[in-house]
Specification:
There is one protein chain. The chain has 93 residues and is mainly alpha-helical. Helices cover 63% and strands 9% of the residues. A hairpin with a 2-residue loop joins β1 and β2. The longest helix is centred in the middle third of the chain and has 28 residues. The chain is elongated, with a radius of gyration of 19 Å.
Length: 93
């Protein structure tokens, strides 16, 4: 395979690894855990490992985004009042 075909194949595989925005957190995390187990098992070829790493990176990014959104939505009940949680030291809105 010539270099441009390899680069095109890699680009297509990377694009295919994008996680749809509506993927539930639990599903993305479960897939990420399976990828980690597969990679730690040492049974993947180099090319499979690279693809798995790329997919895992996308899944990790997706999970981090969803966790960040959840933190922003968390509210706490304090002194009879419902207000936004102050999880990162910012002033609540």
């Amino acid at each position: 395979m010539v270099r441009s075909q390899v680069a095109e194949k890699d680009a297509n595989e990377f694009a295919a690894s994008a996680v749809p925005p509506d993927t539930p957190f639990e599903a993305a995390l479960a897939e990420l855990e399976r990828i980690v187990q597969d990679m730690e098992g040492g049974q993947l070829s180099l090319e499979e490992s690279i693809c798995a790493y790329r997919r895992g990176s996308e899944l990790l990014r997706h999970c981090q985004q969803q966790l960040g959104e959840a933190e922003r939505r968390i509210q706490i009940f304090e002194k009879g009042e419902l207000r936004d949680a102050n999880l990162d030291g910012e002033t609540p809105r």
